[in-house]
Amino acid sequence: MHDNARPHTARVVRQTLAAANINVLPWPAQSPDLNPIEHAWDMLQRRALPNMEGIQSQEDLFLLLQRTWATIPQRDLDELILSMPNRCSCVVSVRGRNTDY
């Protein structure tokens, strides 16, 4: 998934997606990022980065990320989802501009 930001709409990206038969959803460029997976990725990254020393292969990285994902409390992920109505309300109240989320 991408947000139609300029790097994601470069010709080479569009051609690669088309060649792979991947349809891109219509999404306003630089729209407020309300996708909770972005915040879940951030949680994962913050927890994994301190443990990156010694990673020598994609398999090592995959295993680290798998172990790290298991340490994220389910309630934290649930809170991301439950915050969506408030996030949407904030975007509406600022007429689509950036929010604090």
TrEMBL record:
<dbReference type="GO" id="GO:0003676">
    <property type="term" value="F:nucleic acid binding"/>
</dbReference>
<feature type="domain" description="Tc1-like transposase DDE">
    <location>
        <begin position="3"/>
        <end position="60"/>
    </location>
</feature>
<protein>
    <recommendedName>
        <fullName>Tc1-like transposase DDE domain-containing protein</fullName>
    </recommendedName>
</protein>
<dbReference type="InterPro" id="IPR036397">
    <property type="entry name" value="RNaseH_sf"/>
</dbReference>
<dbReference type="InterPro" id="IPR038717">
    <property type="entry name" value="Tc1-like_DDE_dom"/>
</dbReference>
<dbReference type="Pfam" id="PF13358">
    <property type="entry name" value="DDE_3"/>
</dbReference>
